[in-house]
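User: Hello, can you help with two protein structures?

Assistant: Certainly.
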Amino acid sequence: MRSFAHILVFKMVARGELLCYSPLRYVAQKTSFLCRGRPPAGPVGRGTGATSIGRVDVSEPASISASIAGRYAIAIFELSREAKGIKALEGDVAALREALASSADLRDVAVSPVYTRDEQMNAVAALASKMGLSSAMSNGLQLMAAKRRLFTLPHLLSALSNLIADEKGEVTAEVTSASELSAAQAKKLAETLKKQTGKTVKLDTAVDESLIGGMIVKLGSRMIDTSIRAKLATLKNAMKEVG
């Protein structure tokens, strides 16, 4: 565990990515010249003078959660690449995503402040062993649990997926449709997006029946909304202007 933590800190420092609200806050305090701004006076996410009770504040903005997870993802990814374990890491990400989607207990352990640090660490260790996760992923999750950052797990998996896709020359498109896409529809959409981007496009699909029909495609900073819900909203706004 200590070895992984030291490697993680080294990689953060080397890139100048160690922020003052870093999950490894004790390092930020010792190397404050690397911080962008002043270190927090109290525990992360709490006011000055607050007393830490070892609980995580899950109300932190999503952007901060993504930033925290991103730095763990970079370390896990680079350790996996150095060990020639990108394929194993890709399997880890897929397995953990499926586990998060299917297990309410796992989601609860990851985000609930009711569980102690030790309980989260024990749960992660058992999960890693049962799922046969790679050492880089297993150690990374252990460190996240130890630093009360396990609630950023969904962001971690997304960041790792992007890093793996870049390594393979792929891009991932987030596709939300009113109903599940058939294999033929998914293939046609991927081919269309490949022509537009010049890269192999991997689809990350989800279903949202409130769209009524059509789909929303997010590809990098681009978003294409062909849903009936969006068209109805546009029509409603147009009618307001006429009235």
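That covers the first. Now for the second protein you mentioned:
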Amino acid sequence: MTLIFTFIQKAIGQGIAILFGATGEIITEKSGNLNLGVPGIMYMGGIAGLMGAFFYENSTENPIPIVGMIIAIICCLLASALGGLLYSFLTITLRVNQNVVGLSLTTFGTGFGNFFGGSISKLAGGVGQISVMTTASAFQAKIPGLSKIPVIGDLLFSYGFLTYIAIIISLCATFFITKTRAGLNLRAVGEDPATADAAGINVSKYKYIATVVGTSIAGLGGLYFVMEYLGGTWSNNGFGDRGWLAVALVILALWNPTNAIWGSLVFGGLYILYIYMPGLTRATQELCKMLPYVVTIIVLIITSRRNKPENQSPGSLGNAYFREER
């Protein structure tokens, strides 16, 4: 039983970064924009937050954890939002192909993170010596009292605040998309921008806002991974393929942020399953790492055969909209 609880805890820890990325991408895709730059955005958010905390801690003799945390969050959101703004400008205003821009943003973001991660490491005294433990302690702080409850405390209340923020954002995103007028307009833009435009909805405005908000949320996944999961350290290429798993989770969640909550737990569990399966060879471990993508493909096949509108991607996903061609 202890092993099962440990596995669930680790699955949640792995899944939260993926949940941030998936929730942000769902909001973006609801506007019809397909942003394959999520992996790069997560790198940008993570390194920007780490840099902010690092320079704060090294500029004062007695750094305050809560101040470092606020600085890290602001830096993360600014970098992630700028990435989304750049994507929007290139794809909406300049009409550059969305796939090209997204993949370029991933390449740029990954390089951006690794370059500045290495640079900060040298400033700190050598590779692998980056330390913002004071700030990280604020991100890793558990819920007082509730985390001490036997069994349940460790299982449900032993995580940092970003874990709970990720769940709250997903629930709020679902409410916004399904229950508000602005959410209805956003879905209309994603389904048929020409019709939405004819109805008086500002298509470009919704696409810009949805993309910038989406990348900001995705960037928090990078900050979570660096501050809460790794404890305030940086490792080049340390994110692995979590950004791509976030994109895959969008499909598994059927473009519903609430579904992404349990989906992130499934992905987090599948991501580390090989660690808890004894007797695996190196080859079979790699096969186990493929499970999240295999599950995504199976879900995609099943949902496409059912052909339910609510289970399908937005109608204009990945397609540019030119008003003069309406």
